[in-house]
Design goal:
single chain, de novo design (two linked rop proteins), 6 helices, elongated
Length: 130
């Protein structure tokens, strides 16, 4: 009961929410990938998801001028995720349907991160100089 109350009070940034949702899809799929990749590439993908969630959440708490390095790190993590998932798909460790679903979600996350990056970059460029 307490856990449910706590869960309702947690507010995530839209990008962190999308990453969390995509991670949960990955988590479901990851239990079915072959052992040859489960503890190598599968573990790396899992870690990249965790890092991407961590970096976007951290960026959300920072002042605008401090956000860019964290957003750029999240972009690098999600781009690497896309490549690793492509390898899993090309080696037939995940099927077409799973790959397409995860890729679409990661592409949407990439667009969100790119938009956030550009928004902060524009704020930085348009701020008055001291």
């Amino acid at each position: 009961m307490m856990q449910n109350s706590f869960h309702n009070n947690v507010s995530l940034l839209p990008i962190s929410q999308k990453l969390k949702e995509t991670y949960l899809v990955w988590y479901e799929f990851s239990n079915k990938i072959p052992k040859t990749h489960k503890y190598s590439l599968g573990q790396k993908i899992d870690n990249l998801f965790v890092k991407a969630i961590e970096t976007t959440t951290t960026a959300g708490f920072l002042q605008p001028q401090e956000k860019l390095p964290w957003i750029r790190l999240a972009i690098r993590k999600t781009d690497t995720l896309k490549i690793f998932l492509m390898i899993l798909w090309e080696t037939k460790s995940i099927d077409d349907k799973k790959y397409i679903l995860l890729s679409e979600k990661l592409n949407e996350i990439g667009k969100m991160l790119g938009g956030w990056h550009n928004q902060i970059q524009n704020l930085k460029q348009n701020s008055p100089r001291k």
